[in-house]
Amino acid sequence: MKVARVTVSDRASAGIYADRGGPEVERVFRLHWPETCEILSSMVSDERDLIARDLARLADEEGCALILTTGGTGPAPRDVTPEATRDVLEKELPGFGELQRMLSFPTVPTAILSRATAGVRGRTLIVNLPGNPKAIAECLPPLIPAIREALRHLAE
């Protein structure tokens, strides 16, 4: 199975600081996904068309079953990951974002500012995750059962 992790960040993509979100997505995913998989990594700036093109490429050309994005889900003007994700989706699965907000809210009340979403493009599941490594470690593990089930349905 091919999985992609996409870091969305102006500053990380420009080399201003190191990408911490992408490696954390990979670390947490591998920890909770015992099956062998190939993980592709990608990094793009906060540009809606660049993000959408990268998601479409990873789904359509690379054949990734799962794409996990990190970053760009907040309310800032440059945060456009959910919009770019919706641009390429055929079906939206908002429960993924709803669960992340619910999980984070008790300890981080500003988690309600997250606009993360998820959905399906062809046979690919795309899930937006937070950019903060601590939030990734908190949000991704509870999503694994739903990710596994969605991938099972998409493979039918």
Description of the molecule:
There is one protein chain. By secondary structure, the chain is an alpha/beta fold. 46% of the residues lie in helices and 20% in strands. The chain has a single domain, classed as MoaB/Mog-like domain (Molybdenum Cofactor Biosythetic Enzyme, Chain A), CATH 3.40.980.10. It is built from six helices and six strands. It has a six-stranded mixed beta sheet with strand order 2-1-3-6-5-4, sandwiched between helices. A hairpin with a 2-residue loop joins β5 and β6 (124-129). α2 packs across α6 (133-155), α3 crosses α4 (81-88) and α5 packs antiparallel against α6. The longest helix has 23 residues, at 133-155. The two termini are 14 Å apart.
Give a brief outline of the structure.
46% of the residues lie in helices and 20% in strands. With 156 residues, it is an alpha/beta fold.
Would you spell out the secondary-structure blueprint of this structure?
Layout: E1 2-8, H1 10-13, H2 21-32, E2 38-44, H3 48-61, E3 66-70, H4 81-88, E4 91-92, H5 95-104, E5 118-121, E6 124-129, H6 133-155
Indicate the CATH topology.
Answer: Molybdenum Cofactor Biosythetic Enzyme, Chain A
CATH architecture: 3-Layer(aba) Sandwich
Count up the helices. 6
Can you tell me the overall shape? globular
- Mean pLDDT equals 96
Defining key terms:
alpha/beta, 6 helices, Molybdenum Cofactor Biosythetic Enzyme, Chain A, six-stranded mixed sheet, 156 residues
